[in-house]
Amino acid sequence: MSENTTPAAAPTAAPKGKKRLELDPRLAAYQGIWVFVEMERGHVHPVSWELMGEGRKLANILGVELGAVVLGGSGVDTQMASAAAFTYGADVAYVVCDALLTEYRNEPYTKAMTDLVNRHQPEILLLGATTLGRDLAGSVATTLLTGLTADCTDLAIDPDNRGLLATRPTFGGSLLCTIQTLNYRPQMATIRPRVMSMPTAEPGRIGRMVTESLNMVENDIIAKVLEFIPDEAQEQAQLAYADIIVAGGRGMGKAENFRHIWDLAAVLGAEVGGSRPVTHAGWLTADRQIGQSGKTVRPKLYIAAGISGAIQHRVGMEGADVVIAINNDPNAPIFDFATYGIVGDAVHILPALTEAFRSRLVVNRRAG
Amino acid sequence: MHIVVCIKQVPDSAQIRVHPVTNTIMRQGVPAIINPFDLFAIEEALRLKDRMGGKVTVITMGPPQAEDALRKAIAFGVDDVVLLTDRAFAGADTLATSFALAQAIRTIGAENPVDLVFTGKQTIDGDTAQVGPGIAKRMGLQLLTYVAAIDEVDLEQRSITVQRRSEGGVQVIRTQLPALITMLEGTNQIRFATMENMFRSARYVVPQWNKDRAGIEDASKIGLKGSPTVVSKVFAPKPKAIKAQMIDVSQGPKATAAALIDTLTSKSARLANELGLVAY
Ligand SMILES: Cc1cc2nc3c(=O)[nH]c(=O)nc-3n(C[C@H](O)[C@H](O)[C@H](O)COP(=O)(O)OP(=O)(O)OC[C@H]3O[C@@H](n4cnc5c(N)ncnc54)[C@H](O)[C@@H]3O)c2cc1C
Ligand SMILES: Nc1ncnc2c1ncn2[C@@H]1O[C@H](COP(=O)(O)O)[C@@H](O)[C@H]1O
């Protein structure tokens, strides 16, 4: 076991927590904003484009280039991803294409990313807070010995020192804190899917490609992927990207009552979600939990039945356009931020809603 | 086999309140618990020990009170614990935390080499999920995040095969020991403390290590000094100004449902349109 880290750019003097400080000249050489384009089996995770939109805004403020980091195993995939990145605002794509990058593994991905950073020196590096993104971000930050702020909900630039202001929930969402990486570069942050809105692509927009090689052989990599077992499409909840979600909470009373949730969801063509007590009790599978320790969602319509609206739940769903809350307690916190409120017993209201929607939808969205 | 499990004592954030005027956290009276995600790591380590023999050591870095969390771990049945506590550790971010823990694990391993390190998926106060990867990189351990099941550990071959959750599926990965596993939640259920272990826990003298005992020479890598990130502001979320428009419920569920849909078609016309709702 040996020290396995190499500093990208460590400070010469320890930061004293002061906001206004002259950046070490070596650090000032770090320029530009990068977004990691997360690709698995040829499919780019939409969070990458959400971050590209956000990165574009920051790059404009700083007057620097926006770079897309594209790592993958096939030339076709990396070409396509780079082209897409340009349409979402990237000026330049940094590409490493190598068969060893076909499936995600920590070692080759960490090497590809840290080599790119050391060579091209971006000042900010953004990744999606997905399982892959978190695995990679933590490894890259430690290898480069720089700061990483995880699960941010807001990014801004400090006008005083051009530094990144990364804001994230803390203490289970009860508070927000803004974090800065003062005298280290790059400044790294991860952001969850659906926290930032999806930018509109600009077809025909193009950019520069910079291609680097991985310089690794299979024998350098200790971990071997023996098998990949894809989730059954039906089974896996596509909550994060659902347009309509019907969610139930502890107020549904018991597991059987969730059939009212599923019935309404079927008529609306919606996904089903729930609060934490519900997934803990096994009324729904864990991947359907919405909130701080579950998924962040951003649907057009969110129907919450028997959910109190605790802050940890709220942070996962307040990006919804329209929220309909059904709760038998008129003082439930959810009514403080829902669009429409119904005070009543969800077990009685839901079937009536299902019937009403069924008869008044022009076409049943899912032949249900 | 020697397994080290990293756990953290955290305030039970379900019970944290924010002072309405000063916007500071009111910690008084908030009970401290073992980070719930870390219980899956402890249980998995104990199961491996049940299967293969060996020893489980639990370590935490925190204030002297964090001893309670370690005592609890003893009650669950772990063999040994270490409390890493020193004022010099205060203010550590994930990079500084992973440095201190990695160094302490090295020191533990000097006596009895460590084959596997476990951490939880994330903490409920820090919530970064970065300390595990950080320790792995610093120690040069094979990193296995979001592990849902351990299929096989082969001490002869020094290999380990696990199932790890990735986007859209499960990867079956084989790699070499020593490795670090961040355990996925919901993968097991922490056992009950036995009477015997509870007695042992009550009598157990928790060893406290300061930075020197942990083998840390370079104080610039720990605590606030070793942390690249600084918290520049803590504040309460802005309350959303809207209050829900309440739907009349006095005429029973059927009328309520109809009233809601009427309201949607008139007040949220775009949504109603996209849904394909017809206005009567
Ligand atoms: C670190 C941490 C992370 C957390 N992460 C999450 C998370 O990701 N997601 C999450 O959801 N929670 C999370 N929580 C838990 C959160 O604090 C709340 O406890 C939880 O959201 C409450 O769920 P609930 O609203 O379903 O249940 P309750 O708070 O029990 O509320 C039930 C509601 O149903 C109403 N009700 C009762 N009967 C009926 C009825 N017949 N008809 C209609 N309404 C009825 C009640 O008035 C009440 O408002 C987290 C907590 C912590 C500490
Ligand atoms: N102070 C600490 N002492 C021991 N283990 C820790 C500490 N902080 C974090 N960990 C471990 O690292 C995991 C991830 O923590 P975090 O990166 O804070 O989300 C936790 O689940 C713990 O297993």
Give an overview in words.
The complex is a heterodimer of chains A (368) and B (280). Chain A is an alpha/beta fold and 368 residues long. Chain A contains nine helices and 18 strands. In chain A, the strands form four sheets. In chain A, strands 7-11-6-1-4-5-12 form a seven-stranded parallel beta sheet, sandwiched between helices. Chain A is globular, with a radius of gyration of 23 Å. By secondary structure, chain B is an alpha/beta fold. Chain B folds into two domains: 2-221, Rossmann fold; 240-280. In chain B, 30% of the residues lie in helices and 28% in strands. In chain B, strand 10 and strand 11 (169-176) form a beta hairpin. The interface between A and B is large, with 106 and 92 residues. Flavin-adenine dinucleotide sits between chains A (172, 249-251, 253, 275-278, 289-294, 306-308, 310, 312-313, 316, 326-329, 332, 345-347) and B (13-14, 124).
Which of globular, elongated, flat, extended, rod-shaped describes the shape of chain B?
globular
Percentage of residues assigned to helices of chain A: 25-40%
* CATH T-level topology of the largest domain in chain B: Rossmann fold
The major sheet of chain B is characterized as:
9 strands, mixed
Largest beta-sheet details of chain A: 7 strands, parallel
Counted beta strands of chain A:
18
Note the gap between the termini of chain B. Answer: 72 Å
Which regions of chain A have little confidence, pLDDT < 50, spanning 5+ residues?
Answer: 11-20, 364-368
Strand content of chain A: 15-25%
Proper CATH architecture of the largest domain in chain B: 3-Layer(aba) Sandwich
User: Stretches of chain B where pLDDT falls below 50 for ≥5 residues?
Assistant: none
Please, what is the CATH homologous superfamily of the largest domain in chain A?
Answer: HUPs
Q: Give the full name of the CATH homologous superfamily of the largest domain in chain B.
A: HUPs
Strand order of the largest sheet of chain A: 7-11-6-1-4-5-12
Backbone CA Rg of chain B: 24 Å
Strand order of the largest sheet of chain B: 11-10-9-12-8-1-6-7-13
Question: What percentage of the residues of chain B does DSSP assign to strands (E)?
Answer: 25-35%
